[in-house]
Amino acid sequence: MSELIPGQPGAPAAESRAGAPADGSGLMVRAEQVHKSFGSLEVLKGIDLEVRAGEVCCLLGPSGSGKSTFLRCINHLEKINAGSIRVDGDLIGYRERGGRLHEMREKEVAAQRRAIGMVFQRFNLFPHMTVLGNVVEAPVLLGREKKAAARERAAQLLERVGLGDKLGAYPGQLSGGQQQRVAIARALAMRPKLMLFDEPTSALDPELVGEVLDVMKDLARDGMTMIVVTHEIGFAREVGDTLVFMDGGVVVEAGDPREVIANPQHERTRAFLAKVL
Amino acid sequence: MESHDTSTVRARPEPLRAVPVRHPGRWVAVAVLAVLVAMFVHLLVTNAAFNWSFMADKMFRPPIIEGLLRGTVLMTVSAMLIGVTLGVVVAVMRLSDNPILRGVAWLYTWFFRAVPRLVLLAVFGNIGILWSRIEFGVPFDTQLGQLFGIDNLNLRLFGFSSRDILTGFMAGLLGLALSEAAYMAEIVRAGIQSVDEGQTEAAQALGMSRGQLLRRVVLPQAMRVIIPPTGNETIAMLKDTSLLLYVPVSVELFFQLDAVGKRTFQIFPMYVAACLWYLFLTSILLVGQYFLERHFGKGYGPAGRARLRLRGMAAETGGGGNSGTVGPA
User: Fold this and answer.
1) Where is the composition biased (Low complexity) (chain A) (predicted)?
2) Which of A119, A206, B80, B308 is most exposed by smallest CB count within 10 Å?
C-alpha cells in the first residue's frame, strides 16, 4: 500500500522545478482570478481557490455554475482568459520569462499534465484496449516505466481498486462502476501529485456509486491531493477538507464542509443544499 | 434459462396453428421473371454476335492474364497502398492546428476530387509533353545565374527522363494513387471525427502528445469507421483500372481485351469477356469485404455490445461461457 502513496516523492524532480514559491506554503493548487469565456458567454468570473497538499477539495454547485470548466482549466484542457493557475508552484500552460507570459508548446503542456490525474464523468476508457492495457498505456508510451514494471504496478493498482480479476477484460464488458475504478487506476499509474475528479459518479447507477466513492475515500486517506466536482454531499461531508460552493461562475461560499452544509451563510447555498440534501 | 414462476404452475399452451397469409403477388412476379430470364437466355444462345467459342478461346491468353495480374491486380494493390497511406497523412494535416497544413490538405483534396479520374489519367499519361526530363533543384537557377553574370548555372540535384519513368504503368499508378488519396483523406477524416471527443481528452489528460494520442488511441478506434468504405474504394479502384486504357497502360486487362477485339473485329465478345473478368474479380473482393466488416464491427453497435456483456456475465457467474444464446461472434 505504502508504495502506492502518490505523494511528491514519486514525481520526478524535473517537473516540480523552478523554485516553486508556493512550496513553503504547502499549496498544491493556487488559482487567482481565473476568468474563462466561451465566445460571449462568461463561464468563470474570477475564481480564487487554494488547495493544500494532501487536501480534498469538493466543488459543489448547480449545473452551469462553471465547476467542471474550472476543473478542466487546472490541467489546461481549457485555456483561461485571465488570471493564473499554479500547480505545485508551476504556472499551468504558460511560462514567465522577462516579465512576459509565453504560451507553452503542446509538448510542454503534455509534460505538465502528466503530474495531474483526471477522472471523467463518462470514464473515457480506451475501448480497444484491455483493462490492463488502459492502465499500462500511458506510463509505457511516455517512457515512465519499462513494460514489465508498468504491468506489475498496473496489476497492483487494479488490485487496489478491487479489479484484480479483470485485467484481461475489455471496458465494454464492465459495469459503469468498474469502468470508473479502472479510470482511477489509469490516472494513478502516472503517479500524479494531484487528482481531478469531474463528477465521477454522475453517470453511474445509484447502486454502483458506493464502490467508486470507496476507492476515492481510500485515496484521500492515503494523502492524495484531490479536487472533486460532485453532487455527493455525503462524500463531501465525510472526506472533504474544504467545500467550495460555486454559482454563476463565482465562488459563493467556501469552508469546512461540515460547517457549510450544516450552516450555509448564503441564501443561494441554502437553496441549493435544500434541494440536494 | 426458464423463468422461475413459483406462484402458478400452468401447462404450456399448444403452438398456434393458423392459416398463413397468402402472397399471390409473389407468384405473378416469378412468372414475369421466368419469361424475362428465358428471353435473356434465348438471346445469349441464339445471337451469333456473342461468338462464345471465340471469347472462351481468347480470354485466357497469356497477354490477357499478364494484363490482369499486373495492370489490374497489382495496380489496384499498389494504388490503394499509396492512396491509403497518403490519405491518412492528408487527413491528419486537414485536422491539424497548423493553418498552412490545413490549407494544403484542403487544396489537395479539392483538386484531386474535382478532376475526373479519366481526365487525370490522360493528363498523367501525357505529362512527358510538359517536361522531357523531370528535375529537382533550386528553382530559377539559370535566371539567377544570369543575374550574377554566370552563364548556364545549373543547380539541379537529380532528375530523370519522364519518358523512361512517367509513362505507362508508373503514370497510371501515380494518377490513380494520388486521386485515391484525396478520397481516402475524406474517409479517414470522417473516421477520426467519429471517435468520441472524450477519448482525446482522456489521452491528453494522461500527458500524451497529439501524435501519440492519434496513433495509439484515435486511429485504432477510427478503423471501425474507415474500413468498410475502404473496401468499397478498393472495389471501385479495381474497376477504375480499366480507365488505364487512356494513359495508355498496355499491360492491363481491358487494354488487352480491347486490343484483341479491335484487331480481330470481334469487339463484342471481348467486351463480354471484360464483363466476366471484372464480375469475377469484384466478387472475390466482396467476399473479403464481408469478413473484414464482420471482424471490425465486433464489440460495437447494440448487438455487439450486448454480446460482449453477455459473455462477461457468463464468465462472471462461472457459467457455460459461450453458450448457445451467445452464439459465435
Assistant:
1) 10-22
2) A206
